[in-house]
């Protein structure tokens, strides 16, 4: 009985620790967004003259996937993909997965 309770608490703690790590840190992401703002706008509103879409208020999971795709060369590598080619090198500015998640959390938190 006692053991069951202890392992249940341990499992719960592990779950909480896991989700805390997985969640993006919007405050940290804000700092990294500065370079993105040149094309996507200071509030993530997008800029048609730069062909850069709005990112504010978009789904966090979608942003993470797209940024990772650019970074991994899944998106924005075809010579005919002019706008994708402009974006792809920008994804390299974000050093790792955690930073991508932080920037996505920041963008998702902005007013659409
Ligand atoms: C030089 C201008 C430029 C900069 C700087 C830039 N982007 Fe982009 N971004 C673009 C363009 C252009 C597109 C549209 C690509 C396309 O049409 O496929 C784009 C597309 C995207 C998309 C895909 C949106 C969608 O709906 O699929 C995401 C996400 C994104 N950018 C995030 C970022 C982040 C994060 C940064 C900063 C690390 C950044 N961008 C910096 C130009 C830029």
Explain this structure.
With 112 residues, this protein is mostly helical. The protein has one domain (25-109): Cytochrome c-like domain (Cytochrome Bc1 Complex, Chain D, domain 2). Helix content is 64%, strand content 0%. It has helices spanning 2-22, 26-40, 60-72, 82-91, 97-109. Heme C binds at residues 35-36, 38-40, 50-53, 55, 63, 66-67, 83-84, 86-87, 90, 93-94, 103.
Question: What topology does this entry show?
Answer:
Layout: H1 2-22, H2 26-40, H3 60-72, H4 82-91, H5 97-109
The structure holds heme C.
Residues 35-36, 38-40, 50-53, 55, 63, 66-67, 83-84, 86-87, 90, 93-94, 103 line the site of heme C (HEC).
> How many helices does DSSP assign?
5
What is the makeup of the main sheet? Answer: none
Return the CATH architecture.
Orthogonal Bundle
Strand content: under 5%
The CATH first-level class comes to Mainly Alpha
Bound molecules: heme C
Uncertain regions: pLDDT < 50 for 5+ in a row? Answer: 12-21
The CATH superfamily is known as: Cytochrome c-like domain
Overall tally of structural domains = 1
**Residue share in helices?**
55-70%
Tally of strands: 0
Q: Indicate the CATH topology.
A: Cytochrome Bc1 Complex, Chain D, domain 2
- Which shape, going by the Cα principal axes? globular
Structural class by secondary-structure content: mainly alpha
Amino-to-carboxy terminus distance? 51 Å
Rg from Cα: 18 Å
Mean pLDDT: 89
- Succession of helices and strands: HHHHH
